[in-house]
Amino acid sequence: MRVSVNGVELFLDVYGSKLAARDNELVDKPVIVALHGGPGIDHSQFVPWLTPISGFAQLILVDHRGNGRSSRPPVETCTLANMADDLEALRKTLGLGRIVVFGMSFGGMLALTYAIKYPHGVAGLVACATAASNEAFDRGLKRLDAIASPEQRDALERLRTGTVRSAQDLEHVFTALAPFYEYDPQRSPPGGFKPIADIDMLNWFFAHDRHGYDVRSKLGGITVPTLVLTGRHDRIAPPDASDEIVKGIPGAQQVMFEDSGHRLMREENAKFLRTVRDFVKGLS
Predict the structure, then answer these.
(1) Residue 11: beta bridge partners?
(2) What is the DSSP letter of 216?
(3) Homologous superfamily, domain 2-281
(4) 146: burial class by Cβ within 10 Å (0-12, 13-18, 19+)?
(5) pTM exceeds cut of 0.90
(6) What are the Cα distances from residue 82, in Å, to 5, 54, 232?
(7) Which residue ranges make up each domain of the chain?
(8) Strand, coil or helix: what is 204?
């Protein structure tokens, strides 16, 4: 499905119905809008790891502007602030009430940005493997530098500075850095899909937009129930990045995934699904 908002066309996919049968009536199910990581990829990272949630909630997977199957406006317009505006416009266009916002990694940064800017649109917030500032993100990158091989250090530098040169170069960067994303790649289940990659979006964010990202001083304004999901061995968004979010948002609940790195949704999928399901059910 494609929806036009704010001068861009967003691609979204919907899993599950909006209504559920209860006794002799149809009742509304919660709506979860999931915001993918990256940037410069698409929502395929959620399939099939998040989609079972659609059994009790309607799940909407969105490709952000400049990402995936959504349109490609000028890259300098692909900021977190504009993406938050897109999400609010999408919520209104679809006629949705308050939504549960789920954000993974980069999508978590967007989720926090949206919850701060549009608190009236949020019923609950799930911040997964993410950070509240570029400073926290940079701490993780510097720690990776210390343990990286020369090849990995070169890939990190191209990623950090937004100087990935081609699709082939991006594939090389992803391959070199893949071991850092999971705690134990040998234990990770097979499956998933190859994402749609956009080098311009990736380079723009790392070279420009991320440097102005810091919502730590505004976290106290988030008053909705918040769940923070953290991989104990996450090297991309380390546990201390999650700690800042938990300390900043009043009443935020944290769940630690002891056998996971950055891809906790995949590495401990049963626990992940159970944790998110229990949180969303507790909102009603």
Answers:
(1) 2
(2) G
(3) Alpha/Beta hydrolase fold, catalytic domain (3.40.50.1820)
(4) exposed
(5) yes
(6) 11, 28, 32
(7) 2-281
(8) helix
